[in-house]
Amino acid sequence: MSLLLLKCCIILIAVKFANLQEPFDTRWVSSECVDINGKPQMCYPPFTSVAADRKVTATNTCGERGRQKYCIHMSNSGMASRCQYCDARNPDESHPPEYMTDKNPNNWWQSETMADNKLLHFRDSVNLTIDLGTKFHVNYVYLQFKSPRPHAMVIHKRFDDSSEWTPWAYFSSNCYTYFGMAYSPRPVFNKPDELICYEEYSTLQPLYEGEVIFSVINGRPNYDKFFNDVDLQRWSTASQILIELKKMHTFGDERGAERDTLLTYYFAIQKLTVGGRCLCHGHGNECRKSSGPGQKERLVCVCDPAHHTSGDNCEQCQSGYHDRPWQPATPQNANPCVACNCNGNAHLCEFDPELYSRTGSGSRCIDCGNNTEGINCERCKSGYYPNPKQPTTCLPCSCDPVGTIDGQVECNAQGQCQCKPGIGGKSCDHCLEDHFGFNAGGCLPCNCSEGGSYENRPACDSQTGQCICKQNVAGKQCDKCKIGHYGLMSNDPLGCKPCLCSLHSSECKLDEEHLSKVAGRPGEIIELESLVKPDQTIINCPTNQKPCYACLQKDRQHIQVGCNGTTEGHLHCLCEEDPNQCPYCPSGWRTPQIDPRSEICTCPPQYTGKSCEFCADGHRRDPPGGLITDRCILCTCNNHATRCDPESGQCECQDNTGGLFCDRCADGYYGDAIAAINSSDACKPCPCPSEAKCEQVHWPDRSIKVVCKDCPDNRSGIRCERCAENFYGDPVKGIPCKPCDCSNNVDPREFGNCDGKTGECLKCLFGTSGKHCEQCLPGYRRNLKPINISDLSDLIPARGCSPCECNPIGTLANYGSQGIGVCNPETGQCPCKPGVGGVNCDKCFDGFYGFHTGQGCQPCDCNSVGAVQESCDDRTGQCECRPNVIGRQCDQCRPAYFNMTTSVGCQSCNCHIYGAEISQCDKNGQCICKPFAVGVNCEQCQENHYNLQAGCLPCPACYNLVQARVAKLWGMLESVFGPIKQGPSTTSLITRESTETFDDKELFEEIKRLNDTIVKLYQDILGYEADNSIIDQKQFKNT
Description:
This protein is mainly beta. Among the domains are: 30-45 and 280-339, Laminin, CATH 2.10.25.10; 48-279, Jelly Rolls (Sandwich); 867-908, Laminin (Ribbon); 916-957, Ribbon (Laminin). It is 10% helix and 26% strand. It has 9 helices and 71 strands. Helix 7 (959-977) packs across helix 8. 34% of the residues are buried. Mean pLDDT is 87; it is low at 1-20, 982-998, 1026-1031 and 1035-1039.
């Protein structure tokens, strides 16, 4: 326990000592490298034991040359024996230098004794070297010896791995004798890096576990301003430490001493501790191990990104951050490296001290990109201009030497080169829209007509000078209409209107007379361009469509047309049958203008009219009655007419001829219309009744040459001598031809449907017969149809008759000659067997069943109370019963049910399983009770009995007295009120006229009723002022 307390005390003292060695101003330094706002601030790695587990090398170690003996001065030093052995080959006896930093208090490093190395102490020192892995700000060096402390010792350091060893501290029992230096118990430092000698850590006592403490910065100038004193920081900085053990403490007997004495003289160190912080110059808060191929393991700082530093100790600025010199961070200023001001055009830069002192910005950019130059890549190179999308970068001017004045390569800040006349473009590499002929002299103007140019934008081919014209415009300057077009107008998207000329000519001109009428100045000469309405657009559409508004382009100056014009001059994309289907115009629109132009065509000889829309005299349309676009040809009248209708081609026929071209005889005439006039073959009158026509026939077996046709008055025959089909009469005898009346029950396409003389029908159809097919055949019935299709109840006879379709199972044996049942010919009702109904005798009447038996149907006789309806199952006769009703006729209750009604069927008896003899009750619902069980359902024991399940056991005899008293009270009540209402009771031993008795609650109600009656009688008596000893109503109630 005492050893544990001692160790705890040592640890507490070490912690306190470490804190005392820290620079005073570290308490204001944060471990975070940025503040809460993300702004860089000075930060520091944590205070650590720098030497822990680090490799220590020694110039002399015991046991490396074999097993060596050593002894101690005193046997009470904690060792089991005064003398021990050291052997590097045996782990239990080895004492290598790494034991000084392994944190194991039972391990130590030890040198050879004077007995084994004669030069120790006299000539050779023992050097202990520890590599810290990187530069540290060291606060202290602590040694705990296992042997007596050295008589003389020096601690050296290296500022970095490439520096020379420099003394850091001297230790001696006599500083002046050994090092020629004065000693002061309380030294006063004149400068931060002043070198002194210590005597207090070189005394002989204690012999073992003596300490050497070297406080690196404590008490030195600016100790409280450590991060502002460069000399103090450099003084505390070390990357390697060398401890030179020069002289041992002896008793003055080392010269010529015996071996046993020399075996007690050696150096031994139990603990080596170095306290400090990894040096990151305030730009990082962590050091990590790092190694690589062929490199020793070292520690490097993790430089915080916000500080933009780099290097093993954050000792330089990160690439691209050299706008000001690198500086270590201080509590007052984090001094982060600042990005080079290269405007994003260079990845590399360097620090220029002279530039920094002159301008405050020291970054000089290297290899400027994006076509820039300057210290900060801040301007464009010659022949380049700022990129509009990214002004810090530059784009090449790309000036065309041919189109640029004097072949200059420079352009302005917008990238515009200086162009020659008529030349355009940023690079002066093409002609302006209205110019052509790009060459060293510039470009020539096209002089395009604006009204005839496409979209009214004068522009031409840059090589030929040909202007870009509207669809129907021609000419190098787009100043005239194409052949077959007329009337150039600037607000017509197509420019000119096509010559339609009814498709008979392609040559036309503008109808100026029509223009004067449109302008309201008949007879005057009107300029077509004066009729142009600039805020409107001419849009021609087919006759069945209407023009839409013309949408403007984004410039709101020119219209947007998405299609070419047709040969008729229509713009189908701007025409719609329904104007609501026209597109929406987000940039504005122009309304349609009525086209004022009209054509005058140069027509071929066979046409006439302004648009060649008529046939000339002596010509007709081919085909006759055709469109105005159909051709016109000479009239064709076969020499029987001199004129014809120009549209229909109908000739004005003579000489008994007719037809469109006088190519047949007129009606009522026959012959050859082509034959010579007045010849025997020419047209002559028909040998037929008036109004009849005729035609010539060639029947080899008959002499008849002419046959009449289209006979009048329903007549027919070669000379119209008889009645036509479906007519009767005798035209020869003067009897007119009348239609045969066959009730529409014959096929009018057949021949011989009726007698031509009498009119009697001969080919009746659809199941009919009779002279006029007015009757139905046996086994058929009249067809009927509704007078009004919306009212199917009002029927009238229709055409024909239909088979009776009597069902043989339900029909009486009365069949026609064809084996089908005979029905009423008018109604179609078949003769049904008993109980069978329907027009076709195909089902039982409602309330009957058994159709399938073929014997007719029997009545269901369903009980009116127990059945849901009168009808029953067609095959079994089973009625549809109400709940809990059974029987084919639903005339009885299910067992254990009673009281059949139309509302609920039969009710359950609910006879008690223990109190009733059986589950069935009588017609009133009264169950048959076991002895001593009472109630409608036998659900309780009678008075003075209990336990229905056990058979109603008798109660003790005293309960009989209660029963007798209750029976007496009932008798008294009946003597006053007469027989009281009957109901179920639980007890009764007194014989009564009725087996019914009452329970206690009913008895109480009857007694209360009796009391109320007496009170009322008393009130009546008081009303008559009768004498009575009871004078107070309340008194009466209390009696």
